[in-house]
């Protein structure tokens, strides 16, 4: 039992160290290398933004639209009981823009974009394309990883803004049907509830979520061994651990907001 515990601990520490080595390389090729004359592949990053971001818009909008409707349905009886049905606009606006929009968008993207990136890098690994890049004096992190990480990190805040609009729209339509709140009053209360600090907080949080999704996807893609079975296994791991780390990061951001931003 002690031997098993020791092996598990060593394996965990090795995984953590390998991941942070990859993060270090990503930060180097993203921040430091351009000042040394090593260009970021902007064209590849732009292509990945279109590939990762545009294709995800319909599913993310649908999810947040339905979530906005569900929130109204769940909270309307309580608000009617207290005689403040119009308060639903403030609740939907703050809850979606501050927490739910970014969190759900990131969770959807971990399965949509994260799985795609992990499978793509893993297939390249199995077919020895990564080794071919190294043989050609091309760094795989700079050539493959950095464009995908930047694309996901840039695309996610844009997707969150779109998803927030979809969620608020779903809440507005349902509020009109269930509570009789007019769209004009709903939008007026929504704009009053949304503050600049909430928007900035959401952008920073969603950018961080994008970095987490892409970094973990690339890491598990690099880990692939053993053909198609290995690709499937590590792709699943990338999605699972991305979701776990996104939820943990969201908890940290929420605690930070409550301690340092909510008081102002």
Task: Please describe the biggest sheet, giving its number of strands, its sense, and whether it closes into a barrel.
Answer: none
The percent range for helix content is over 70%
Order of helices and strands: HHHHHHHHH
Task: Summarize model confidence as the mean pLDDT.
Answer: 89
Q: How many strand segments? A: 0
User: What is the straight-line distance between the termini?
Assistant: 52 Å
Beta-strand content bin: under 5%
- What's the shape? elongated
Structural class: mainly alpha
Determine Rg (CA atoms, Å): 21 Å
Q: Helix tally?
A: 9
Q: What low-confidence regions span 5 or more consecutive residues with pLDDT below 50?
A: none
Count of discrete domains: 1
At a glance:
The protein contains 9 helices and no strands.
Describe the structure.
The chain is an all-alpha fold and 264 residues long. It has helices spanning 2-32, 42-53, 57-82, 88-126, 129-135, 140-178, 183-193, 196-222, 228-261. The chain is elongated, with a radius of gyration of 21 Å. The chain has 9 helices and no strands. It has one domain (43-261).
């Amino acid at each position: 039992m002690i031997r098993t515990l020791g092996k598990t601990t060593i394996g965990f520490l090795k995984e953590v160290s390998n991941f942070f080595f990859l993060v270090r390389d990503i930060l180097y090729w993203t921040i430091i290398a351009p000042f040394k004359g090593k260009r970021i592949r902007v064209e590849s990053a732009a292509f990945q933004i279109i590939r990762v971001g545009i294709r995800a818009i319909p599913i993310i909008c649908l999810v947040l639209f339905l979530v906005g409707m569900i929130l109204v349905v769940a909270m309307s009886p309580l608000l009617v009981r207290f005689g403040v049905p119009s308060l639903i606009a403030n609740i939907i606006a703050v809850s979606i823009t501050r927490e739910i929009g970014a969190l759900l968008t990131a969770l959807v993207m971990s399965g949509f974009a994260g799985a795609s990136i992990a499978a793509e890098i893993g297939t390249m690994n199995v077919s020895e394309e990564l080794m071919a890049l190294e043989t050609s004096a091309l760094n795989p992190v700079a050539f493959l990883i950095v464009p995908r990480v930047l694309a996901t990190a840039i695309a996610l805040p844009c997707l969150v803004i779109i998803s927030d609009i979809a969620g608020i729209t779903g809440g507005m339509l349902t509020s009109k049907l269930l509570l009789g709140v007019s769209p004009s009053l709903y939008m007026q209360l929504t704009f009053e509830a949304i503050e600049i600090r909430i928007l900035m907080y959401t952008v920073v949080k969603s950018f961080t979520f994008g970095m987490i999704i892409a970094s973990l996807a690339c890491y598990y893609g690099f880990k692939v061994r053993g053909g198609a079975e290995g690709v499937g296994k590590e792709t699943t791991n990338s999605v699972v651990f991305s979701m776990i780390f996104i939820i943990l990061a969201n908890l940290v951001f929420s605690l930070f907001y409550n301690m340092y931003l909510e008081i102002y």
